[in-house]
């Protein structure tokens, strides 16, 4: 194919892609389609046909690339350059006036301030990064400072353009949005789940959250998620004068905005907007639970600043929750995946906010004491955020008997193991038997087998759940009792897959003490703390005679962690587990590391892709960290080295596009020794 033919095909492709992008924008963002579904399908089919013939001309911004091939293995952590803070809340117009008074005082300006008001969508927050106009990263909010990379799933949302409209766009633009599921799609998805014998989603927000965590982007695509952009985090080479200015430019770039956003000249206009949508909320095609009020002027926003948790220049006005009264029939104790024992009230079924409520959370035993609630009491319940039912107060005491008092259980209701308070006043109570309690076992197995822990390749979440459900694994020790014939009886398990898993299980016995301590999932003990403990007490036997005072003498260990460690190793089930694992040949001692390792990689960032031959991924990362470097999961302009093993993936391609240094395994090992690559 000569250059003229290539240019001709490229022009045809770009024209088709632009037509499809515009059609997506009109349909999903403006709700004003300009072509029929059949015309749209013909355009997409034509594009696919040309790209099949000329695969070298396929770009990442093509509408055909919304769903990536294969499954996502995990969701790597992503550090937000600008923190995604939560919002303070106001539950009345009086609280809104108090908030305005506070910011006027801080600004020293008695005159009115312009506000932008936006409907508070009940969905899941996300961060989107566009580089040179191309969507390059999508991540969850996470804890506000660090989220998870869900780019493949974000790209399936058709209201989000993979490429910004126009030629004048920022070099780098990070925007924040709310991903949500419309009510009609929620009903359709729940109908499909019921037909498949699966439990329905509780509400659209939970459905959205669960969808974004699916490992298969093609399944996410079928959930028909939507997204509204509501602010920006940072912008390179582009300035905005106000929040309204950002919204106007975002609209020109083709980003989806909520059509009901409004600029208000004062708080009375804000209150009028809130009243209007409080009465109209049920007519919307999606769930909202309030209104977000923001100071419009960005210079004033900057002057007002923020607290550790929230910006001072914005607040969320929450619509009144829906309430009803009913009777507490009983209280059940649920054991969560982290071992927390949560009291749940079984209620006389009552309609509340369009749903029949028969259970409500009591949160913890301190809350029960505060409410003074007994079985047989008449209580006021509320759907907080229109979603989670909770008991607000006791309206009328029932015929109380001694047995009606809700007491803290002495044993775990699931496994009969010991329980202990999170703190001395026992606000939260949890089951200590996290290695053997059935309620916690699935999570415990997944964590135990994860890469930073025992690194058992092939034993992920789905297999862990299957092994526990079929009772092939009833405690962590059973992982090392698995037989080949048992695995071959499971779906999708052939001879080679079973052999590889058993080989990986056998290899895990040599991971060492620090990895094992982390793998046990002891409350409050992360990777760093596990290494500290193993270096200080290099044989597992020492852990069974530790006391809290001895542990608290270690700088990195405080009283809460010390108590958790002592409690954990005081259990008979843990002693039995360790005894069995030692009998299998597991190494439960910490190998002494050579001192004086040079920090020759200090400040250097490494990304690994593909399969390494002479060491595991975890070992490679340890080499980097021991020498002062940092190992991250995603490629960016700040990456110093990309280490490419056998069959490298998309990280390799991205590194090439960014012209980053790419080295092989041998060069990496030379660097760790201090040699030139």
Provide tags for this entry:
single chain; 677 residues; alpha+beta; Helix Hairpins; D-amino Acid Aminotransferase, Chain A, domain 1; OB fold (Dihydrolipoamide Acetyltransferase, E2P); 5 domains; seven-stranded antiparallel sheet; five-stranded mixed sheet; 23 helices; 22 strands; 20% strand; globular
Report on the structure:
By secondary structure, the protein is of the alpha+beta class. It has five domains: 63 residues, Helix Hairpins; 230 residues, 2-Layer Sandwich (D-amino Acid Aminotransferase, Chain A, domain 1); 94 residues, OB fold (Dihydrolipoamide Acetyltransferase, E2P) (Beta Barrel); 146 residues, 5' to 3' exonuclease, C-terminal subdomain (DNA polymerase, domain 1, Orthogonal Bundle), CATH 1.10.150; 68 residues, Rossmann fold (3-Layer(aba) Sandwich). Helices cover 35% and strands 20% of the residues. The protein has 23 helices and 22 strands. Strands 12, 13, 14, 15, 16, 17 and 18 form a seven-stranded antiparallel sheet that branches. It has a five-stranded mixed sheet with strand order 2-11-10-3-9. The protein has a four-stranded antiparallel sheet with strand order 5-4-7-8. Helix 1 packs antiparallel against helix 2, helix 12 runs antiparallel to helix 13 and helix 16 crosses helix 17. The longest helix has 27 residues. It is globular. The chain starts with a helix and ends in a 5-residue tail after the last helix. The mean pLDDT is 86.
């Amino acid at each position: 194919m000569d250059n003229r033919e290539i240019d001709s095909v490229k022009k045809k492709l770009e024209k088709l892609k632009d037509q499809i992008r515009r059609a997506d924008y009109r349909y999903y963002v403006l709700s004003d389609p300009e072509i029929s579904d059949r015309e749209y399908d013909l355009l997409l089919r034509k594009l696919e046909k040309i790209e099949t013939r000329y695969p070298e001309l396929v770009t990442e911004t093509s509408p055909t690339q919304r769903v990536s091939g294969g499954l996502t293995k995990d969701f790597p952590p992503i550090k937000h350059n600008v923190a995604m803070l939560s919002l303070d809340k106001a539950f009345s117009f009086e609280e809104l006036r108090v908030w305005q008074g506070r910011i006027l005082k801080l600004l020293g300006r008695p005159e009115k301030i312009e506000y932008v008001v936006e409907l508070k969508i009940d969905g899941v927050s996300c961060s989107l990064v566009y580089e040179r106009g191309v969507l390059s990263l999508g991540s969850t909010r996470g804890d506000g400072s660090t989220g998870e990379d869900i780019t493949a799933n974000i790209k399936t949302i058709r209201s989000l353009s993979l490429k910004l409209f126009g030629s004048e766009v920022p070099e780098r633009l990070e925007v924040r949005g709310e991903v949500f599921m419309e009510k009609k799609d929620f009903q359709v998805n729940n109908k499909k789940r019921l037909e498949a014998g699966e439990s329905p989603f509780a509400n659209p927000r939970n459905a959205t959250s669960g969808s974004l965590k699916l490992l298969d982007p093609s399944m996410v695509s079928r959930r028909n998620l939507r997204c509204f952009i509501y602010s920006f985090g940072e912008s390179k080479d582009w300035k905005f004068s106000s929040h309204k200015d950002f919204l106007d430019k975002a609209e020109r770039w083709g980003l989806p905005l909520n059509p009901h956003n409004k600029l208000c000249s004062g708080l009375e206009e804000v209150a009028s907007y809130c009243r209007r949508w409080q009465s109209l909320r049920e007519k919307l095609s999606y769930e909202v639970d309030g209104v977000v009020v923001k100071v419009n002027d960005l210079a004033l926003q900057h002057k007002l600043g923020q607290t550790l948790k929230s910006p001072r220049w914005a607040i969320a006005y929450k619509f009144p929750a829906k309430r009803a009264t009913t009777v507490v029939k009983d209280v059940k104790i649920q054991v969560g995946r982290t071992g927390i024992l949560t009291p749940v009230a079984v209620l006389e079924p009552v309609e509340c906010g369009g749903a029949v409520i028969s259970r409500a959370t009591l949160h913890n035993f301190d809350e029960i004491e505060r409410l003074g609630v007994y079985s047989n009491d008449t209580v006021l319940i509320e759907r907080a955020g229109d979603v989670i039912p909770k008991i607000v107060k006791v309206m009328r005491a029932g015929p109380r008997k001694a047995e009606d008092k809700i007491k803290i259980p002495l044993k775990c209701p699931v496994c009969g193991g010991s329980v202990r308070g999170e703190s001395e006043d026992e606000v939260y109570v949890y089951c200590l038997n996290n290695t053997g309690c059935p309620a916690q076992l699935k999570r415990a197995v997944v964590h135990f087998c994860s890469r930073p822990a025992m690194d058992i390749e092939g034993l992920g979440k789905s297999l862990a759940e299957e092994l526990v459900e079929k009772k092939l694994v009833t405690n962590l020790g059973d992982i090392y009792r698995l037989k080949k014939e048992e695995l071959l009886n499971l779906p999708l398990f052939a001879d080679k897959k079973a052999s590889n898993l058993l080989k990986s299980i056998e290899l895990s016995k040599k991971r060492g003490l620090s990895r094992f301590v982390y793998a046990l999932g002891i409350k409050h003990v992360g990777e760093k703390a596990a290494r500290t403990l193993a270096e200080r007490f290099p044989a597992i036997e020492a852990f069974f005679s530790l006391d809290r005072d001895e542990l608290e003498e270690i700088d990195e260990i405080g009283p809460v962690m010390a108590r958790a460690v002592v409690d954990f190793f005081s259990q008979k089930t843990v002693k039995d587990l360790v005894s069995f694992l030692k009998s299998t040949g597991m190494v439960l001692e910490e190998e002494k590391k050579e001192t004086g390792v040079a920090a020759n990689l200090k400040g250097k960032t490494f990304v690994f892709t593909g399969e390494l031959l002479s060491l595991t991924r975890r070992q490679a990362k340890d080499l980097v960290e021991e020498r002062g470097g940092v190992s991250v999961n995603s490629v960016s302009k700040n990456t110093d080295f990309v280490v490419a093993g056998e069959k490298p993936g998309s990280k390799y391609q991205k590194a090439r596009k960014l012209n980053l240094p790419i080295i092989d395994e041998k060069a990496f090992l030379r660097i760790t020794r201090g040699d030139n690559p």
